[in-house]
Amino acid sequence: MTEHLLPFHEALQRLDAEWADADDAGGLNRRQLVTVTEALGLLHRLGDAMLAEVAARVADESRAELGADSLAKEQGFRNATQMIATTTGATNSDASRLVKVGAATAPRTNLVGERMPAKHPAAQRALMSGALSAQAIALIIALLDRVRLKISTTQCAEAEQLLVDKAVGLSLDDVRRLVTRAEAWLDPDGVAPKEQEHRDHRSLSIYERDGRIHLNGDLDAATGAPIVAAVNGYVSAMFAAQRNILAPDSPDTDHRTVAALRADALSAICAHALGCENDAPAMAGATIVVRVDLHDLHDGTGYATIDGSDLPISISDARRMAANGGVIPCVLGSDGERLDWGREQRFFTRAQRIALAERDGGCAMCGLPPSMTRAHHIRWWKRDAGPTDLANGILLCESCHHRIHDNDWDIRIEGKGIHSRVWFVPPPHVDPARTPRLGGRARYDLTA
Known about the structure:
Layout: H1 6-20, H2 30-60, H3 71-74, H4 80-88, H5 92-105, E1 108-109, E2 115-116, H6 121-128, H7 134-147, H8 153-167, H9 172-186, H10 191-200, E3 203-209, E4 212-218, H11 221-245, H12 258-273, E5 288-293, H13 294-299, E6 304-306, H14 315-322, E7 327-332, H15 350-360, E8 374-377, E9 393-396, H16 398-406, E10 410-414, E11 421-425, E12 437-439
Parallel strand pairs: 5-7
Antiparallel strand pairs: 1-2, 3-4, 5-6, 8-9, 10-11, 11-12
Helix pairs in contact: 1-2, 2-5, 4-5, 5-7, 7-8, 7-9, 8-9, 11-12
């Protein structure tokens, strides 16, 4: 067996061993399900790595200058992308991505034939070890290619290693979030031009078809922020009102989907704006928080962020939004309100929630936006006499709040203030070693 295939065979043996121990009657138990899922995930990533390597070789053997001797044409395909897509059952875009990843992570030779490291060595190591999928590597490589001419070679190499390290263990959605924030961090001067391009292409189409009204919106971050905050605030308020009034099995329980609630929210908000009667509950949390560094605000450099959105905005847009009603400018680095209250009051203040949102980025466990979370005491107010302090607070959505308490997860805070880190410690029946899992904004923020 070649060393190249050793990780793949080890993962396959692990999978085979777990399945061999499965009960014929009951199938895999919970522990086995977790192990098998992890093994399948590793196999998938390792398979992607080998496929990317092969795809790059196929593309090289199918380059245009070979003409009729091209491997793809020899096999009856128009080009390498079509050959790979057809052979693997993937889309053309998937095949094209595999070729790019394979080429960017393959060893190279110089003009005299000497071997050189891959263009992206950190990405290559993560890909070949199965630590990251080809899709995650593609996102990182695409970002590095976009900023390569704007930062030094040393900065680019450091950014690559940092991105790879941060991306391990993240879902692909969180890797996208990481990359979005990283691009603003690496190239803050590029935020404003992109912002203007997005603003120029904003649109909202409204038309009637088949007796229904259809809305299709495409908005830049600053324009869409009030809509997102208001709609999510309405939905959260509806969930809270129902939870406080009705029993879970009540016949009056609202069975609308989140999408239906959002549609009703938009209608209710517009009706309210037109001056109609509106008995909807108050939209708790429907406030836009724009966060910006004090130094950047003074100098007009850098970028700002909006709670509940992964998209950065320019300093000029942050200043413009701060002049509007319903927007709270959160300037980091300046003196703020008191954030620790001890036992003086039970409920967290707005200033504390804003500080928790800066640290947690939303639900510290699953990542839902701040408007869909509540501030909870880590050490309970009644049972543990827990104080209403920042170090004892955490933002959680209702689902994660119940999951933590029902399944006996522990929460630990490392450090102090808004730059502290949140760790979730699984119970022994989930992980016998009780290995802490990083939560909050630190999972996908390079500067966290």
